[in-house]
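Hey, can you fold this?
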Amino acid sequence: MLECRASLLAGTRAFFADRGVLEVDTPLLVNATVTDVHIHSARVQLEPPSCAHFLHTSPEYAMKRLLAAGVGDIFQICHVIRAGERSRLHNPEFTLIEWYRAGFSLATLMSEVEQLVRALLGTSGEQRTCEHLSYRDAFLRELGLDPLTASLADLARLTRTIGYQAEHSPRPSLSAERDEHLELLMGALVGPKLGRGALTFVDRYPASQAALAQLDPHDARVALRFELYCDGIELANGFQELASAAEQRARFQHDLQERGARGLPALDIDERLLAALAAGLPACAGVALGFDRLVMLATGAHHIDEVLTFPTSRA
């Protein structure tokens, strides 16, 4: 397994070197973390006692600061930490390949993601077809349900079939509750059916799930965001990156309101990221790809622990 990981890492670096994309290194320990209610950061207390720090959940914020400083196309291979994530496909510490391409459209970035995955999977990658679906069409095909117009009651009825019972005290907003049902349905019923023998790109996610992505200028209901599925596994998540500091601040503040409604800890907004956006983020698209899951696909492993040298349970 070590040899496979080393080979795929070398292949990744060669892929980006051929394209003139610069490898960068950003801090694991950060002063401000993500505000997303679904991502839980690991808090670190340095000695002697000081203000709280966090282990990063993604290098995105730091990489965007580099982009705003004018470094051009960049990629990074790094470990990230997300608390509370443990399953067949999740380990709290995992490896991401993250990269940003100036001037790329979402379609151009999806094409490059396809090229990288095919190159790293070798013969298995070459034999796979490729398909593109909108988020709406994926739900319609697999569930016969329109995720953009379905009622909250209809969504709740479906999530109950997979054993979900909402138990919020206090309850999230209606928009957040709707997204919770959609994400459960994608994770349990839609996603596992995608990419069977193929590379399946799903794009145009609901605007409420935009995070740091631009909204579609032709349909404000959806965001310029995609995910890649292969053999039922979510492998990558990409955005046409939002460059507006004002809009990003508003989204962060909305996250904080939602965190308060759910009784989650209050967090500081990353002002350094917002300052970088205000200074000028170049038009770009970016993506994060789960390297350990790619190794699973390359080796036929069933559980992420099979491809990690030291899973957290044995670290």
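Oh, and this one too while you're at it.
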Amino acid sequence: MGCDSWKAKLDTYLDGELPAEEMRPFAEHVRGCPTCAADALARVQMKRSVQAAGKRFTPSAEFRKRMQKSIEAKPRKRNFGFAWVLASAVVATLLVIGFAANNRNGARGRAEQSYSEVADLHVATLASSAPVDVISTDRHTVKPWFQGKIPFAFDLPELQNTEFSLLGARMTYLDQVPGAHLIYEVGKHRISVFIFQQGALRGDFDDNSGAKKKLSFNLETWEQGGLRYFVIGDASAGEITKLSNLFKSIAS
């Protein structure tokens, strides 16, 4: 299959809409083809730029407050009948429920966007000709490299007697929050482990999220010791769980 045939499906691959049986050979081709890798990286970066631009036009909390004050400032007819009082109470209750639902939906939406961005970061790494900033299989080399680069510390699991190997690491950002990106290998598959400060991320992360299940990659995420972990890759769900458990076993 020539590169033209691969590129015809590149956007479908980046959007995670390829059939499962095509994802792995496509990922292997992108890793081994400099032309397709560069094209994939450029498209991922453009996608993230579009997402960032969209956030700039999200109404701020201050704007909402001004709108609410403007509405409240409008003159109202005085009517102290029982029906009006009852209607007001019903409306107030609905507004409270609506605000609560909007807050939950907003948090859920931000989490779903984070899942998508994590997948984009993983794909960009697979497509990059220089996927890591520090190349090392030694966790005692990788961990100190992050000192002074991110506002938190973390531990890496011991990999002896496991099928996993550490390839290296790099700095990364999720929703403008700095974090660590570790790259592991199992068999012919690469797995990304992202670590961020839990309090710095926005979103209500749910292990049962439908958005997470729609990703073409297997993904596990959890909070531990004030840090949010994401483990993602095209390896099997069992291998993703094994690597996740190695991190969970570390004393926080």
